[in-house]
Design brief:
By secondary structure, the protein is of the alpha+beta class. It is 34% helix and 32% strand. It has three helices and five strands; from the N terminus they run αβαβββαβ.
Length: 113
C-alpha cells in the first residue's frame, strides 16, 4: 500500500517562523519585508518573514524590531535556534540559513513634563 505524500504550504512555514520569533524574549514585533517585484510574484512572503524552499530545505529571512534593553547578538541567535528547531521538529524539513535582520529598536517614549 502506498502511504501517499504530505505537502506543506509555504504559509504554514511562515506561521511557524513568525509565531516562534514573536515568542523570543526581547522581540518587540516583526518588521515588514522590503517590497519588491518578487514579492508580488512568489509565494513564501509574509509580514516580517521571507521563506525560501529548495527541495526539502527551508531557509528564512526574518525582519524584527527588538526591545531596547536586549543584547542584539544573543537575541538574534535565540531567534535563529528557535525557528530552526521549530521548523525541523514540526514539519521534519531540513533548515538551511535563518538570517535575522534587525530593522529597528523600540525605545520607550520619553514623556516631557
Amino acid at each position: 500500500m502506498d502511504a501517499g505524500t504530505t505537502t506543506i504550504a509555504p504559509e504554514v512555514l511562515l506561521t511557524i517562523a513568525r509565531l516562534t520569533t514573536l515568542r523570543v524574549e526581547g522581540v518587540s514585533r516583526l518588521s515588514t519585508v522590503p517590497a519588491g517585484v518578487n514579492r508580488l510574484i512568489k509565494r513564501g512572503y509574509g509580514e516580517g518573514v521571507h521563506i525560501n524552499i529548495n527541495d526539502n530545505n527551508v531557509s528564512a529571512d526574518i525582519h524584527v524590531i527588538l526591545e531596547s534593553d536586549v543584547n542584539i547578538r544573543d537575541t538574534s541567535r535565540c531567534i535563529q535556534g528557535d525557528v530552526a528547531r521549530a521548523i525541523s521538529e514540526m514539519v521534519g524539513m531540513d533548515v538551511g540559513y535563518i538570517n535575522i535582520h534587525v530593522d529597528d529598536i523600540d525605545y520607550p517614549e520619553v514623556v516631557s513634563a
